[in-house]
Amino acid sequence: MLKRLYLVILAVAGFSPAALAASPVARVIFLGDSITEGYGVNKSAAYPELIAEALPAKVHHPIKVINAGVSGSTTASAVSRLKWLLKGPTQPTLLVIALGGNDGLRGLDVKAMQQHLTEAVRYAKAHGIQQVLIAGMQMPPNYGQGYLREFAAVFPAVAKAEQTALLPFLLDGVGGDPKLNQADGIHPNGAGQQRIAQTVLQAILPLLGNN
């Protein structure tokens, strides 16, 4: 079932494991959940797709953007999903890990979340990925200040321990703004996805180089 789901994601993104291995271009994988997938908006309006459109004017070498967002995903699925995505002799240049939001919304253990993220980073590095960017998340205030602090601290802690790049808050300028979110108050609308794309693009450009 999981393998079939990944095949659907690959087909929607316009690539297959065989094509991924054969292509000479650099590759960026966005490993995320419904926000990355583009829940509630046209798939072409999801922030990874917007970044793919913007990159040719910013980076002077070919880059393939792979949107590996799956609604409902938690950090517990990160390594198993990477094992599928990283099949093939040629590995991506950059991995953006944008997971954790569902862990927080479900009140899952932050220590387990930290362990899952750590394992994902280590797996990526062990399999040839040169750069990893961790995108941090924050929870709404109704989850209690203690949990909020512990949750938010996981992302910089993993980034520091594993020496990866860090985007402090994926939804910077978007979270909590009704004008940039859908009616559920959780998922960004089209304008919110554009704001996320701008934030993430600025974070990944130094990791990609510009020539």
In short:
The protein is of the alpha/beta class and 211 residues long. It contains 9 helices and 5 strands; from the N terminus they run ααβααβαβααβαβα.
Polypeptide structure, described:
This protein has 211 residues and is α/β, with parallel strands linked by helices. The protein has one domain (2-208): SGNH hydrolase (Rossmann fold). 46% of the residues lie in helices and 13% in strands. The protein contains nine helices and five strands. The protein has a five-stranded parallel beta sheet with strand order 2-1-3-4-5, with helices on both faces.
Question: Beta-strand level of the residues, as a percent range?
Answer: 5-15%
Tell me the span between the first and last alpha carbons.
41 Å
Q: How big is the Rg?
A: 16 Å
H/E series = HHEHHEHEHHEHEH
**DSSP summary: helix tally:** 9
Shape: globular
Biggest sheet: strand arrangement: 2-1-3-4-5
List descriptors.
211 residues; alpha/beta; Rossmann fold; five-stranded parallel β-sheet; 5 strands
Structural topology:
Layout: H1 2-13, H2 17-22, E1 26-32, H3 34-37, H4 47-54, E2 63-69, H5 78-85, E3 94-98, H6 101-105, H7 110-126, E4 131-135, H8 145-162, E5 165-167, H9 190-208
Parallel strand pairs: 1-2, 1-3, 3-4, 4-5
Helix pairs in contact: 4-9, 5-7, 7-8
